[in-house]
């Protein structure tokens, strides 16, 4: 269970004074401002949970939680803050306004907690339940771009299952047998009766056909065009210098293939996909490369003696990370386990949300780009700047880990082309 989910569960149980989960009534705020909020209106909570006490508690869930005889809201807030010392994440301060409680977390301890958790192989992974899943793919006999979309969904879904409570198997006796197909009129009664879950991948359409015609271009032709498009985007938008060596040609091909995979997951699998050859995919890959380049440059400067080696996490003062962009970036990282869980969705009922992975990469790239454009990371080697630099490097290493974990689900290797 993630730190974010654990905190919400602990807070909910504290407020209700029961073991009932209440995290759905506690909202995590990703952008600037408070980190969590929830209504203190006891009547609204009573729509979901039964309260047996007869006193009104001033219609305030905070007072109810502490059973404060004086009905003192300030004392109730202080009690919650003190209790949070036992939570997965610690509370720095609380504010009540317009019948809502707004929570800000303690930044130093939250940064360190997450930076210790994120590198773990278990971060974002559910505990296995012992149930198995097999996946079969029913392709049409052509090399169309729609088939390529189906194959990409198959690839991503299989990699996602490794994060889930299920275990992937090829065994025909799997507990849950998934069939992937592009055929919306597929009849399980007539064929592939061994499958109990059907996931339909909708068609790919050409942009220049007014969204009415299915694309009949081959996957190979599409990929060649995507490679050329990514090359031009890199040249025009990001100023990548033209090279003709083999390494650059391999890089071009890698970026085009990566963009093609991201294209296929951009919208929900059950919705038609219109090919737009958008720059958003280049934006994701470019910001991943930025992080790789920054960390490579830092390591090279350490090796040359210009910078001191990166101290252990416990020796870093995370209070030096004071910028809102840094905190927003961390909160994006905290979302990763929930994004993984939601992307797999309700697999048993054939409902998945692989497009949520794509959206998450977009949001993470945007958060990092905003941070990078406003804050200099690799500073001069001055005694007063090095502690801040080291704190920032730990942040970048966490961002790199989540970027690479997410891209690996698409089987995309990170690259540096700056």
Automatic annotation (TrEMBL):
Residues forming coiled coils: 63-97
UniProt keyword Amino-acid biosynthesis, yes or no: no
Domain DALR anticodon binding, chain residue ranges per copy: 284-418
GO molecular function terms attached to this record: arginine-tRNA ligase activity; ATP binding; tRNA binding
InterPro entries attached to this UniProt entry: DALR_anticod-bd (IPR008909), DALRD3 (IPR037380), tRNAsynth_Ia_anticodon-bd (IPR009080)
One BP annotation, GO: tRNA C3-cytosine methylation
Bilayer-spanning residue ranges: none
Alphabetized UniProt keyword annotations: Coiled coil
PANTHER family the UniProt entry points to: DALR ANTICODON-BINDING DOMAIN-CONTAINING PROTEIN 3, DALRD3 PROTEIN
Protein name: DALR anticodon binding domain-containing protein
Organism in which the protein naturally occurs: Chironomus riparius
């Amino acid at each position: 269970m993630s730190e974010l989910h654990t905190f919400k569960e602990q807070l909910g149980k504290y407020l209700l004074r029961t073991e009932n989960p209440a995290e759905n009534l506690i909202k995590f705020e990703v952008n600037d401002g408070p980190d969590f909020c929830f209504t203190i209106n006891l009547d609204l909570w009573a729509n979901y949970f039964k309260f047996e006490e007869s006193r009104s508690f001033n219609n305030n869930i905070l007072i109810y939680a502490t059973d404060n005889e004086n009905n003192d809201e300030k004392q109730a807030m202080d009690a919650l803050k003190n209790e949070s010392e036992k939570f997965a994440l610690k509370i720095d301060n609380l504010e009540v306004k317009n019948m809502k409680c707004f929570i800000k977390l303690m930044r130093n301890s939250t940064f360190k907690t997450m930076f210790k958790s994120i590198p773990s192989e278990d971060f974002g992974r559910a505990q296995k339940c012992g149930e198995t899943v097999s996946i079969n793919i029913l392709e049409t006999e052509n090399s169309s771009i729609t088939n390529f979309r189906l194959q990409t969904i198959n690839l991503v879904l299989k990699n996602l299952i490794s994060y889930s409570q299920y275990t992937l198997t090829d065994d025909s006796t799997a507990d849950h047998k998934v069939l992937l197909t592009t055929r919306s009129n597929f009849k399980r009664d007539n064929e592939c009766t061994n499958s109990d879950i059907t996931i339909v991948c909708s068609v790919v359409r050409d942009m220049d056909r007014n969204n009415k015609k299915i694309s009949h271009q081959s996957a190979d032709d599409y990929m060649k065009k995507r490679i050329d498009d990514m090359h031009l985007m890199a040249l025009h938008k990001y100023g990548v210098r033209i090279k003709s060596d083999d390494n650059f040609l391999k890089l071009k091909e890698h970026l085009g293939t990566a963009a093609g995979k991201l294209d296929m997951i951009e919208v929900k699998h059950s919705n038609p996909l219109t090919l737009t050859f958008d720059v958003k995919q280049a934006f994701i890959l470019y910001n991943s490369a930025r992080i790789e380049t920054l960390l490579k440059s830092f390591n090279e400067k350490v090796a040359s003696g210009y910078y001191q080696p990166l101290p252990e996490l416990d020796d870093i003062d995370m209070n030096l990370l004071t910028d809102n962009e840094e905190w927003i970036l961390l909160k994006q990282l905290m979302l990763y386990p929930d994004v993984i869980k939601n992307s797999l969705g309700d697999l048993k009922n054939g409902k998945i949300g692989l497009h949520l992975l794509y959206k998450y990469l977009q949001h993470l790239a945007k958060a990092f780009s905003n941070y990078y454009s406003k804050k200099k990371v690799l500073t001069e080697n001055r005694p007063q700047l090095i502690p801040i630099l080291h704190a920032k490097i730990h942040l970048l290493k966490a961002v790199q880990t989540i970027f690479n974990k997410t891209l690996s689900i698409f089987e995309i290797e990170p690259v540096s082309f700056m």
